[in-house]
Design a protein that fits this description.
By secondary structure, this protein is an all-alpha fold. It has helices at residues 3-7, 13-41, 55-58, 68-71, 77-112, 118-133, 136-144, 146-154, 165-191, 194-202, 207-222, 224-237, 249-260, 263-294. Pfam families: BPD_transp_1 (PF00528).
């Protein structure tokens, strides 16, 4: 029985027909959705004077969003150098900074939640649950409002310190995503088999050494998909910096769309850039996970010093004793066996165990 037949029941004739109907229906609905999207932004869905199936209805409307003039700004170098590239740089700066800080935050507070000391475990759990329960946008707003709070509560003069939009975005992303990553790390450590900790204790490792040298590396490896998924969320959440006038990628495309009146082309190009970045991050995580899984695995193709493959020969086991080798040799000694040793003939008339070795 194959693994496929065990894990999946082959559909019968009715099930195959039903699946075919569902597939065709889904494709039809998807095509209808694309048609509505095209006609809607072409301004011929509700403002048309011709029939729905008239070619004039599907022709590009000069006042719609699909004309070449709406896409032409993205063919000019100044659009990329003045808007897109600076916005992309700000987005990547905020995302990478927040990602590093969030991972450190998650490790510290995730380990703190597993501490044996209550005065570490309880505050760490309170911090994690507090920042997980607050919306990210509120964290960004609260960070921006720190100078006002300092003036109203502590009478610190206004202008003593300022919180920039970049600091507010990075702080909000770090606190929220770091709290989520703390639970990810904690779950990964708890998922490591207990035998690993017991073996570390058996060789004299302290709990700190066990945590940092044994448990955390295995937890990070096993939870890599969840960590990368949260980092992708962090990258996308950096677009919330638009609310506090942070010049990130979405705000740059918004400025282009406002100036050129091409909202749909700008949104499509912006979405494509975000998709490419997130797919690249996911592919990097897959490569890293495969590399970690292959670490320590012996090579299946040994090579010689010059790089040529070496044929691996099986080592022969002990050979079966040959009947003819047990015949007495001339001079009263038996022939050498598999080990090469010879046994002298005592000259006794005692029969051997096998009838074929019996002396006359």
């Amino acid at each position: 029985m194959s693994a496929q037949s065990v894990l999946f029941d082959a559909p019968g004739p009715k099930a195959r027909a039903r699946n075919a109907v569902y597939t065709v229906g889904t494709l039809i609905l998807f095509a209808i959705g694309l048609a509505i999207l095209y006609l809607g932004f072409n301004r011929t869905l509700t403002e048309r004077e011709t029939g729905l199936f008239d070619p004039a209805t599907w022709a590009v409307n000069p006042t719609g969003q699909w004309t070449a003039e709406k896409w032409e700004p993205f063919l000019r170098p100044d659009t990329w150098t003045d808007y897109v590239i600076p916005g992309l740089q700000n987005t990547l700066t905020a995302a990478l900074t927040a990602a590093v800080l969030a991972i450190a935050f998650g490790l510290v507070f995730g380990i703190g939640r597993m501490s044996d000391h209550w005065w570490i475990r309880v505050p760490a759990g309170a911090v994690v649950e507090f920042f997980r329960g607050i919306p990210l946008l509120m964290l960004i707003f609260f960070t921006m409002a720190l100078p006002i709070v300092a003036y109203q509560v502590f009478d610190i003069p206004t202008g003593t310190f300022q919180v920039t939009a970049l600091v507010a975005v990075v702080t909000g992303l770090t606190l929220y995503n770091g709290s989520v990553l703390a639970e990810v790390f904690r779950a990964g450590v708890l998922a490591v088999p207990k035998g690993q900790s017991e073996a570390a204790q058996a060789i004299g490792m302290t709990k700190t050494q066990n945590m940092w040298l044994i448990l955390i590396p295995q937890a990070i490896t096993s939870m890599m998909p969840a960590i990368v998924a949260q980092l992708v969320v962090l990258l996308k959440d950096s677009a919330l910096g638009y609310i506090v006038a942070f010049p990130e990628l979405l705000r740059s495309f918004t400025l282009v769309a406002t100036r050129e009146s091409n909202v749909i082309p700008a949104a499509i190009i912006c979405a494509i850039i975000y998709i490419v970045i997130n797919l690249s991050l996911s592919r990097f995580a897959i490569w890293l996970e495969r590399r970690n899984s292959r670490r320590g695995r012996p090579s299946t193709k040994p090579t010689a010093a010059g790089g040529a493959p070496v044929a691996v020969q099986a080592q022969p086991g002990p050979a079966a004793p040959d009947a003819t080798a047990q015949e007495p040799a001339e001079g009263g000694a038996t022939a050498a066996g598999p080990s090469g040793a010879t046994a002298p003939d005592e000259g006794s008339d005692k029969d051997d165990e096998g009838p074929e070795n019996r002396r006359d």
